[in-house]
Amino acid sequence: xxxxxxxxxxxxxxxxxxxxxxxxxxxxxxxxxxxxxxxxxxxx
Length: 44
Known about the structure:
There is one protein chain. The protein is an all-alpha fold. It has one domain. The chain has two helices and no strands. The longest helix has 9 residues.
Protein backbone atom coordinates (compact mmCIF):
# COMPACT_ATOMS: atom_id res chain seq x y z
CA UNK A 1 0.00 0.00 0.00
CA UNK A 2 1.32 3.44 -0.87
CA UNK A 3 0.24 6.52 1.11
CA UNK A 4 0.53 10.16 0.15
CA UNK A 5 0.81 13.04 2.63
CA UNK A 6 -1.89 15.58 1.84
CA UNK A 7 -1.83 17.84 4.90
CA UNK A 8 0.53 18.17 7.84
CA UNK A 9 -0.84 19.36 11.20
CA UNK A 10 0.91 20.83 14.24
CA UNK A 11 1.83 18.17 16.82
CA UNK A 12 0.06 20.03 19.61
CA UNK A 13 -3.26 20.08 17.75
CA UNK A 14 -3.24 16.44 16.66
CA UNK A 15 -1.01 14.49 19.05
CA UNK A 16 -1.53 10.80 19.81
CA UNK A 17 -2.99 11.80 23.20
CA UNK A 18 -5.54 13.96 21.35
CA UNK A 19 -6.39 11.03 19.07
CA UNK A 20 -6.97 8.87 22.16
CA UNK A 21 -9.65 11.36 23.26
CA UNK A 22 -11.54 10.40 20.10
CA UNK A 23 -11.15 6.66 20.71
CA UNK A 24 -8.17 6.01 18.44
CA UNK A 25 -5.92 3.42 20.10
CA UNK A 26 -3.79 2.32 17.14
CA UNK A 27 -3.03 3.67 13.70
CA UNK A 28 -2.81 0.89 11.15
CA UNK A 29 -3.81 2.58 7.93
CA UNK A 30 -6.36 4.79 6.22
CA UNK A 31 -9.34 2.49 6.85
CA UNK A 32 -11.52 4.15 9.49
CA UNK A 33 -11.76 7.41 11.38
CA UNK A 34 -14.39 8.21 14.03
CA UNK A 35 -16.87 10.82 12.78
CA UNK A 36 -16.12 13.12 15.71
CA UNK A 37 -12.40 13.06 14.87
CA UNK A 38 -13.14 13.78 11.21
CA UNK A 39 -15.22 16.81 12.21
CA UNK A 40 -12.46 18.03 14.56
CA UNK A 41 -9.84 17.80 11.81
CA UNK A 42 -12.05 19.67 9.34
CA UNK A 43 -12.23 22.56 11.82
CA UNK A 44 -8.44 22.80 12.00
